[in-house]
Amino acid sequence: MVKCRVSQIPFLLLLLLLFLPPFLTWRSGRSSIYTSLDTAQFAPVAIVFGAGLTVNNTPSNALRDRLTIAADLYNRGLVDRLLVSGDNRTQDYNESDVMKQTLIDDFGLPAEMIYVDYAGRRTYDTCRRAHELWGIDEAILVTQGYHLPRAIWTCEALGIESTGVSASLQPYVKDLLFKIREIGAIYKAFIDLYVIEPEYIGGERMEDLGSVANYVEA
After folding, report:
1. Which range marks the domain in which residue 35 is found?
2. Tens digits of residue pLDDT in 61-87
3. Which end of the chain has fewer surrounding CB within 10 Å, N or C?
4. Which residues does residue 53 pair with via DSSP β-bridges, in sequence order?
5. Number of domains in the chain
6. What CA–CA distance (Å, rounded) separates 119 from 86?
7. Which residues touch 81 (CB under 8 Å, ≥6 apart)?
8. Residue 63 belongs to some domain of the structure
9. Which residues, at least 6 apart from 165, have a Cβ–Cβ distance to it below 8 Å?
10. Measured between alpha carbons, how far is residue 9 from residues 13, 17, 95, 206 in Å?
C-alpha cells in the first residue's frame, strides 16, 4: 500500500503542475475584470498592451479596439494617464509610437498624458517595466478578454495592483488561434514568474507614474 502511494507522487505532482497555472490565472483575474466601463473604478494609469500593426503600419483590429477602450477610460476620467507598451525591435516596426499617435490623431487625447514604453515585447516585459521603470503600483490593464486574466496575474505577481477592461469589441480573424496560443502562454508565464526569471530589457527609472505627488502637480 505504501509503495503504491509513493508511486503516485509523480503523477500527483504532474497533475498539480498541469492545473496550477490555469488556477492561478483564473483566481487573479476572476474578480478583477470589469464587466463594462460603467462598473470600472478609478486607477492612476491604464496600461495598454500592443497587439500588432498592419502592413500599412496602422493598428491591427485588436490593437485599435484596445486604443478605443483606453481612450474611453481617459475621457470618462477613470484614468489620468496612459502607458502604451509595444514592440519596436526593428527600425521599420514601431508599435508604441503608432499607438500614441493614433490616440492623439484619431481619439483627440493630449500627447502629454500618453507615455510610451518601447520594449513591451511581451506581457512579462510590459508588466515588469511598468513597475520597475515607470513606477506603476496600480493600473487598469487594457487588452482582449482572452488575454486579460494572464495579464492581470502577471502584473500582480510583479508588483502592480491590477484590474482590467476587455477590449474584445468584435470577432477577430485569428480569434481561435489567439485563444489556443493563450493556453501555452499561461504555462510560460508560470515558468517566468516562479521557476526561471527570463531576460528582459531593463534600464533606469523613466518617470514615476505611480507617484501621488506627480499627479497632484499635473
Report:
1. 28-167+175-217
2. 999 999 999 999 999 999 999 999 998
3. N
4. 59
5. 1
6. 6
7. 44, 45, 46, 113, 114, 115, 209, 218
8. yes
9. 33, 34, 37, 40, 69, 73, 140, 141, 142
10. 6, 12, 47, 48
CATH of residue 35's domain is 3.40.50.620
From 131, 188, 197, 181, select the one nearest 160 (Cα to Cα): 131
Model-level pTM? 0.85
Q: Which set of grid coordinates corresponds to residue 211?
A: 507617484
* 2 assigned to some structural domain: no
C-alpha grid cell for residue 133? 521603470
In a domain? residue 159: yes
SS3 42: coil
Of the candidates 120, 105, 109, 106, which has an alpha carbon nearest to the alpha carbon of residue 80? 109
Q: Evaluate whether 217 touches 209 at the Cβ level (below 8 Å).
A: no
Q: How far apart are CA 32 and CA 153, in angstroms?
A: 10
Nearest in space to 68 (alpha carbons), one of 94, 46, 88, 44: 46
Tally the residues of the chain: 218
Q: For 79-131, how does the pLDDT look when each residue is reduced to its tens digit (9 = 90+)?
A: 999 999 998 877 788 999 999 999 999 999 999 999 999 999 999 999 999 99
Residue 5 belongs to a domain: no
